[in-house]
Design goal:
D-Maltodextrin-Binding Protein, domain 2, 12 helices, alpha/beta
Length: 321
Amino acid sequence: MRRRAVFAAGVGAALARPARGQAYPDRPVRLLIPFVAGGPADLLGRLFAEALGARLGQPVVPENRPGVGGVTALEAAARAAPDGHTLVLPGTGGVAIAPALPARMPLDVLADLWHPTLVARVPEAVAVHPASGIDGIPGLAALARGKEGGAVFGSAGVGSITHLAPALLAKEAGFPVTHVPYRGIAPAVTDLLARRVDFVVADVPVLKPHVDAGALRLLAVATGGRLASLPGVPTTAELGLPRVLSDNWYSLAAPAGVPAPVRARLLAAAGEALRDPALAREYARVEAIPAPLSPEETMAFLRAETAKWAPLVRETGAASL
């Protein structure tokens, strides 16, 4: 109740000020990025910020605000003045997974923020070491069933998409697994390269350089269709696992009290930026896909993703940590 009162007071005070929707934006806009500088999500955010700023006529300034699986940035955005000058670029973990981790959530992500659109989807893929001899999901399942404790997979940490996506794969394909969490996906991939773990499910741009070098093998992409950059890699649906979809996605959000004129201006600018072929080309270089949606479509998508991942959070024990 106290958290709700704080948010309500902030919204009420902001709305009591003169509406400036038609002049929006009248100064630089902050884009909070809930990830460390230099990573793939940071790059996607900065490319989007540049494209969005060009449409708004004011700089959109990226500000890295990592912490608590993305929740730190989400909370900061929800508490900001609802005038459209503070935005946030949350990912799957902060919006769809963290709500099932009550200890991490000081806010109601869907209620305390306005979610106008998705920004990008980044496909994930199932990777193994070529020396393992595994050339498909059946081979991975056979390894898991014949090994005490099952197949060992590495992740970027408990409750991350790289934790829950392999758990979803194992559940749907019916094989046992053991989870080894790391502080980020890079050390997990390093241990896959050293054959200390059996597989990972991670973002394609993280895996592809190793695939191109012959150091890793992809068994499937966990997305809706084959990728132009990996035409020979089947989708999980093609392999009989249609429920195994684990795109890592990023969306745009602002404080819930943003007034209608500002919402309209921001939505139009974001849509133009995300439909720009130049941004699509930049995103393609890092295996990302622009994903513009209407606010209604965005909310439906976010609710569906939350409903999908919440049971796995409970089943994997992540909710108790």
